[in-house]
Amino acid sequence: MTRVCVVGAGAVGAVFGARIAGPLSVLARGATLAALRAHGWALNGAARPVTASDDAADLGEQDVVILTVKAHALPALAPALKPLLGPDTVVIPALNGVPWWFFPDRTLRSVDPHGTVGATLDRSRVVGCVVHLSAAVTAPGEAVLTAGNGLILGEPDGGGSERLDAVARLLEAFDVTLSADIRRDVWYKLWGNMTVNPISALTGATADRILDDPLVNGFAHAVMREAAAIGARIGCPIEQTPADRNAVTRRLGAFKTSMLQDAEAGRPLELDAMLTAVREIAVTVQIPTPALDALLGLTRLAARERGLYHD
Predict the structure, then answer these.
(1) Active site residue 189
(2) Are the beta carbons of 267 and 73 closer than 8 angstroms?
(3) Do residues 127 and 91 make contact, with C-beta atoms less than 8 angstroms apart?
(4) Of the residues 70, 82, 189, 256, which is catalytic?
């Protein structure tokens, strides 16, 4: 029987927890941990029992570890996950932005400043994951799925594998797509999120309002053109135009991005994985990013002033 542990008991974690059959454990803390122990994990009103702890040693070695924490929490958290890891444990990072495993030969200091994530969660364990769904926490241990059910899965170095097929079977309740180039899929999702998310946190506007403002939308397009140029340089080309991508976002209506939800709840913003990492890559490949720099600088300063970002 596959032993699965979800690390992070927020909205996306609840969706994974609800979609996976069989015994499930979860690493959580605080009020969420208490709620999970009292009544299990609830998604859209339907609850399921879980084994919950704030200590990975209580849960033991797992076959699959699914990471649904925010990327900025991983550097501090990663060493504490060692008890979950056996010799063949597969790690599935269901994270926004550029992940620590993105390059085989380079550590991104913006997402793994001291190398602790890569040292603990070795890239060889990773099955890459891109999440296409929207969910929100309604109370500790409770969440609602509001849109989407899609996952893209792939080996970091491309191609197929037996473990990739096994993970796809484990997650068969999702609409799973297997990718031959998961890095390109990661970059494409980032390309769509890296403007609307931080602009929403900066302004408090829903996605439709951002797209409807010609000046704001024009600025977002400038950022996206820079990111597309970076993608082409690192083997993640994007064939669409910014207008094409925004048309997809527009179909989702007047929604609050995950970063806006974090800002409103007073939670730290995942700016480093979404913007700082892109700038770090741009410097390495020598592509100027004046629009990206402006977006990062403004959003980071606003977040610092509100206590939502710490260097």
Answers:
(1) yes
(2) no
(3) yes
(4) 189
Give domain limits for the chain.
Answer: 4-180, 184-305
Fold of 4-180: Rossmann fold (3.40.50)
* pTM, entire model: 0.95
Instruction: Name 64's bridge partners.
Output: 4, 90
3-state helix, strand, coil in the chain (%, to 5): 50, 20, 30
- pLDDT, one tens digit per residue, over 86-113 is 999 999 999 999 999 999 999 999 999 9
Annotation: CATH topology of 184-305: N-(1-d-carboxylethyl)-l-norvaline Dehydrogenase; domain 2 (1.10.1040)
Please state the separation of Cα 157 from the chain's center in Å: 19
pLDDT digits (tens, 9 = 90+) for 73-83: 999 999 999 99
- 54: number of Cβ within 10 Å: 12
What are the structure tokens assigned to 39, written together?
């009544």
Residue type, 98: V
